[in-house]
Amino acid sequence: MSDVPSTPTAERAAQLPAQSPPVDPAETAAASGQTAAAGRLSWWRGDGGEGARRNLALIGVLLVLIVIGAVTRSDLYSNPDWVWDNVLSILKLASVVGVVTVGMTFVIIGGGIDLSVGAIVALAGVWCTTVATQSYGAGGMIFSALTVGLAVGLVNGLLISYGRLVPFIATLAMLVAARGLAAEISDKQTQVSDNSFINGLASNNLLGIPLLVYILAAVVAAGWVLLNRTTFGRRTVAVGGNPEAARLAGINVKRHTVLLYALSGLCCGIAAIMLTAQANSAQAAMANLYELDAIAAAIIGGTLLSGGRGTIIGSLLGVVIFATITNLFAINGLSTEAQNMVKGGIIVAAVLVQQVKFRSVTQFLGRNRLTTT
Amino acid sequence: MTEQRAQPEEAVVTDAPLVEAPADAVAGEVVLRLTDVVKTFPGVRALDGVQLEVRAGEVHCLLGQNGAGKSTLIKVLAGVHRPDSGLVEWRGEPATFANPQAAMRAGIATIYQELDLVEDLSVAENTFLGHEPRRFGFVRRGHMARRTRQILGRLGHAEIPPGRMVRALPAAGKQVVSMARALSHEARLIIMDEPSAVLAHDEVGNLFRIIRELTAQGIAVIYISHRLEEIREIGDRVTVLKDGRTTAANLPARDTPTRDLVSRMTGRTIEYVFPDRPAAEPGGEELLRVDGLTRAGEFADVSLSVRPGEIVGIAGLVGSGRSELLETIYGARRAEAGTVTMAGRTLRPGSVGAAVRAGMGMAPEERKSQALLLGEPIYRNVTLATFGRYARFGFTDTGRERAEADRIAESLELRPRDVRRPVRTLSGGNQQKVVVGRWLLGDTRLLLLDEPTRGVDVGARSELYQVIRALAARGVGVLLVSSEVPEVLGLADRVLVMREGRVVREAPAGELDENTVLDLVMAGSLMEGAPA
User: Fold this and answer.
1) ipTM value > 0.95
2) Chain B: closest CA distance from residue A275 (Å)
3) CB pairs under 8 A between A and B
4) Domains in chain B, please, with CATH?
5) Domain A53-358 class, CATH top level
6) For residues A98 and B228, what is the distance between their CA atoms, to the nearest angstrom?
7) Tell me: the pLDDT tens digits for A221-265?
8) How many CB atoms lie within 10 A of CB A112?
9) How close is the nearest chain B Cα to the Cα of A350, in Å?
């Protein structure tokens, strides 16, 4: 208890400048230099070592899976060319779901969920492969896929933000409706893509790496920058971590929520082009259950289902782990049924591990709450 | 109300005049006795030697200001907290309740302000929740309904159908179900925490009738209320708490003068150091002007103004509409009538963004749930409202953010100082500094503070007071809400007293004293000629 009427606090607070001076580049540089000296955290996460540690654990899991592959099929792994090809095929396998997962990660960090991603991919894929759209060439197809994805995402966001629907319900309805519309447009037929540029996205390589992998890398890089280095990303964490606090700090929570679902829709549009390229065609049943793959990958990657925490790198690792498991079963000639069971087990294990961590946090908060009663 | 209360037979004292019955007129056996009960939390001595004696068949009222320790005391009795030292005797034997279930089994039921009912279960299911009558693992629904009807009958509410969903009941009905649940546990003592706060005026009479029926059956009631007229009407004896201590025990509820009661609640033993007020009156153009602001059921026709550099305090109880008023001014709630004007510009109602752009900032009542991202670093919490200003082309500048947050942390003497630590590792007082510090960045001209020192330990309080005064000295207007009367009087230049959604008094802080304000806040009977 201080009994001095004028503590240093008062004096220092009184010395605060009346308002922040405008951004001065020189001062900014000095400031960042100062913080760098104070000890910069891992450059690839920016702040907080927790996400980085979790990602290291995921890389460990990935290594274990590779070792299992190498032990069970040592005959194949003895051939370096095969190993390289196999790595590329795993990445190619992961590319489409990976792009969807980036959008999903934003939505979940922002406190929502998007069950309609698979349906949006199908709708965008079908839309961009109609005879009419294909007549506009590759540009028209890409434009229509992206626009359809963005538009459906916007509808999701508007329903959730301004229609006050629960995200689960709104996107579940969209899942059903978008697939219905896709079936209507395609007349339940498989629409073959005649466009060599689109088809070439899946079959062509650049420097020995499939173009699809470049697209995945670009989307992941953009997602990482968006989440970690922009005001959009900061708002996403705030809106998902504590919507009321974000609102009372003057952040437009509703508008941001709309943008998050639009972003997810846009990612689905990109994925639709990639998937169409892979199959040289599109149909209403494509991208089936992608929503579950994307959610599972994000969760395994450390994204908190209740929002406010998650990393793009973690989600990418989640997708790659799933793809590696699929590959592992394929090279060993095992059934997809067994593979699905293993995937289910991995999801449960990942969430259990998270809960142990989370419980220690809530216990801490519980203790704190007592002190403030 | 003067009708004679039903008393247990042995309690009727024939030779004593009823009106001036001494406190001992309640002659039921002592069911509960607390001696020197102490409970400390880190940084706070919530209970610091509480004495309490409750007899069977009496209504024992607990009186005390916010922070006096009533809530902690209830939680000790309900088995939520265990006392550090002191003796709790329950029906003649020392008792400690390991958990709420144990307290309930022993016969102590607590009815909290927020009723803990399951809205989508029936009245009967709620009444017997957790101890449903069973046979071979199946709930005996018929039996349960019968016994519920019986209990409701005892409470004089046989008209409530046991099969009705609780959701469909009005607030008063839900309260009856809570009491039915207490009776289903054969409770000997029922603790009621401000039961009248959720009721309309005419429903309070019914509540009192039920309480009288309970006490007539020998059940003891601990009744907590801020409304003195209720205590006079329903209470038998009063125990007053202040700063976690019993300052008066077993006063007769009906005829202890109001002045005596109020004086025992006031005059804090812990004196906070409030910064000096500036000699000059804050002048200049009105910064904030609120005209006829109204939200049905929360507050009505509130008008006020704040000048630059002025601290305006609003005193009022929980439920007086003060927090709702603050949130409405800030745009977090949409006003139904009236206007909010900042520096001559009328703000769009229901838009926090508009308020923030006009230069308002708010530190809300619930720090953790309304203001902070607990898992995020301190600096990101400090810059939550301003990170966009430091960004260029949408790219955040964390280096600059940290430098700015560092500056704030330094000036507010934040401990620990490392702004990269998660905010959840800070104490309550330091968390509050983070929330206030958020608005020191940018060009905040009006700060709305809702209970700024709730859960803040003694040392940090004085620091916060200094910070608030220093802000005002810089020309920032402050609108402060607090349920601690001394805080409002000590810190504010001008004080508004709110009761039941209306401003009942406005005066410079120097013209008011604690007794006057407390009386206005609670009843408004003591002040003669006070504008109502």
Assistant:
1) no
2) 32
3) 185
4) 9-107+188-265 (3.40.50.300), 117-175 (no CATH), 284-359+443-525 (3.40.50.300), 370-442 (no CATH)
5) mainly alpha
6) 65
7) 999 999 988 999 999 999 999 999 999 988 999 999 999 999 999
8) 25
9) 20
